[in-house]
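Translate sequence into C-alpha cells.
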Amino acid sequence: MKKRTRIAFIIIISITISVLSGCQGNDDKVMDYDTKANEYITSINEVTTGEKIHGNVLVVKDGLVLFAKGYGKADYDTDRDFTEDTMFLVASNTKPITAIAIMQLQEKGLLDIKDPVSMYIPDQLRGGEITIEHLLTHTSGVRRDPNTSLSQPVSKEELLKKIISEPLIFDPGTKYQYSNCGFTLLAYIIENVSGQTYEDYLDENIFTPLDMMNTGAATSNEDLPDMASAHYISDNNISKSPLLCDVSVFLGAANIYSSTKDLFLLENALYNEKIISKETIESMYENRYGIGFGELDGHKWVGHNGLLSNYSSTVLRFPDEQLSVIVLMNVGNQDDLNFNIAQELSIMALEEDYTFLKVGGEYQFDNDLGQIYKCKPEGIKAN
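Result follows.
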C-alpha cells in the first residue's frame, strides 16, 4: 500500500459549521432527522436476529450533515468503536471510481471511450469489437468473474491472461451482463495509458487531491490497512470472519477501501467539479458509466452498492436534491439490506412529512428482497 503524507484538512462535520452557526432552522432539521434515522436503525437491530445494521452511516444534504453515526463495533474482539475515519472494503463501489479515472483520461485526450479495447490490450479475444464504453456499461460480453480461485491472490499478469483468453458470452453491445472482469480490463487500460499502476494513478489523481487520506486501492489482502474487521452473524452471535476473497482477483472492480468521510469528500468533489467537469459527470449519469440509476418516490438517483467478504456498501446520490447517503457495514449481510436502508434514509431526507410508524409498542418492518424497508402494521418479519 502506498504511503502518503497526511496533511491537515477540515473534517466533514466542519464543512457545515458556517452554515449551522446561528441558524436554528438547520439545527432543528438536523435534530429531527437524527432522531428519526436513529430510531429507525435502532428498531431494526432490536427486532432482527439474523440481519443487523453494523457500520457507519452518513447522510448529507445541501452540504449539511444530517446524520453521521456508527452502530456496533469496528472490532468486537478488541471492543474497538467506529470513527469517521474507520476504513471498510467498499467492494463494487470501486467501479464508479474506476469509471471516473477513465473519464479523466478522456478529458486529458489520452483515450476515447469509443476506442476498441485492442488499442490498449492487443491480446484481448475479439478486442477489436469491444469498446471502452462497452466495458463501462457492462455490455462487452466479457464474463462476470475470472476463471480462477477467488480466495487466492493472483498477480496482475496472470489475472489479465485469464480474462483476455476467455470466450465472450455474447456479442459486444447486444446485451447487458454485469462484469467484474470488464472493470479489471479498465484498470489495465488506465495503467497502459497513464504509465502508472492503477493504484498510483488513483492516489495521485483522485485520492490525494481530495484529501481522501483513508482511501486506497489494494493489490492483495496483504496490502489492506487496519480496517474495521469483517464479521458474520450466526444464531444471533457475532463472530470475526476471515476475508473470503482476495481483492487481487477484483482489480478495478472491488479492491478499494475507504471511509464514510472520504467517500463524502468524493461526492462533494463531483458536485463541485473538482476532479472531472460537469459535462463529463452528466455524461456518466446519462450513459450509466460505472454506476447504477433509479428513481425513488419521483427523485432520480445514481450510485452503486457492493458486497465482498462480509463487507457491504451503498452510495446513493440524488443530484437534483444535492443529497448523498453512504452506508458502510462490516457484518455479513446481503447487500440488498444495506441498499434498502440507504433508500429509506434517503426518503427520510427527501420527504418532510415522513413518519416512522410504531404499532402496539413494537417496531414493524418488512425485509423482502428488493423491497424498501417500511414499517408494516401486519407484523414483524425478521430474518
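Note: The chain has one domain: 12-350.
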